[in-house]
Amino acid sequence: MTEIQNIPGIKNKKKRKLILSYTGSFDSLTRIKLGQIITEKTRDNPNSGRKVFKIFMELALNIYYYSGDRFNNDNDSGSSGTGTIHIYEESESYVIMTENKINAENIAHVTEKIAKINSLDRNGLRELKRDMTRLPRNTYGGSNIGLIYVALISAHPIEHKVIKIKKNYYSFNIIVKIKK
Amino acid sequence: MENYNIKAIKEFYYKPEIILDAETGKCSITGDSYLEDPLKFYLPVIEWLKKYIAEIKRPIEFNFKVEYFNTSSFRSFIDIITILKEYKDNGGAVIINWYVEEDDEDLKEDIEDFVLRTNMEINQVIIKPE
């Protein structure tokens, strides 16, 4: 697993407070429990807390659908992706970091998508979001607009890092900042 | 034609409550929509609306009281609004209201994007934060 200190965007350890850290399956019950914790921990900042919650849910569902590490559920509901999430509170912002395993064949697609998202201004992102909804849904019935939505809600570029962990598998890290 | 109702299940799935009333034409989706398979969940809503439009042909008031939803649900809402837009274009009486807290600028922007994407008018009903 990637060391937190090595991830861009996380530099000043003294000024940040860890409000959530979780590694494991991102099944529906887990997402709901983590969402409840986020709501509670961001209660003092309702506007930015709402953004943290929305972005968490989108990133958590991304892990559930796409993580290369799978956990077989007991109740015949298929498998859930596994991964890691950390949420930090800083003096003027929240930082959400996710990490999951990704197959080598998917890296180019997702990094190109993030590069395109980061190159657009807000109006460009909104136009891309609308245009993407005209395309067919992806294999999992997903929207194809999750990361665009994350960029819009956070109003910051999406930072990411890809680290090779073994042949054909990489650690994929996303860092999102939300201003309080 | 029968009504279609689903109770919200927030504890486990973030499924919203759905009420589709064939007698009054009043319909609503209420609650959070963080579904893993919204396509499947909202399919009965789509089918109900198509049947109502074909058989009942009376006015529809559709109220979205949804603050939190994932982007897969976003796409399903476009499907619903598109059907209502087609009904309106063919002479049907349709009102869509979306309830939004006055300080939720992200949701207001989402509603604007629904309007731009579907060309369907959506009334923003502003509510005070709880």
Report the strand count of chain B. 6
Summarize the amount of helix of chain B as a percent range: 25-40%
Helix content of chain A: 25-40%
How much of the polypeptide of chain A forms β-strand, as a percent range? Answer: 25-35%
What is the mean predicted local confidence, pLDDT of chain B?
93
Written description of the protein model:
The complex is a heterodimer of chains A (180) and B (130). Chain A has 180 residues and is an alpha+beta fold. In chain A, 39% of the residues lie in helices and 31% in strands. In chain A, strands 1, 2, 3, 4, 5 and 6 form a six-stranded antiparallel β-sheet that branches. In chain A, strand 5 (159-166) and strand 6 form a beta hairpin. Chain A starts with 15 loop residues before the first strand and ends with a strand. In chain A, 38% of the residues are buried. Residues 1-5 of chain A have low confidence and may be disordered. Chain B has 130 residues and is an alpha/beta fold. Chain B has a single domain, classed as Transcription Regulator spoIIAA. Helix content of chain B is 39%, strand content 24%. In chain B, helix 1 runs parallel beside helix 2 (71-89). The model of chain B has no long low-confidence stretch (mean pLDDT 93).
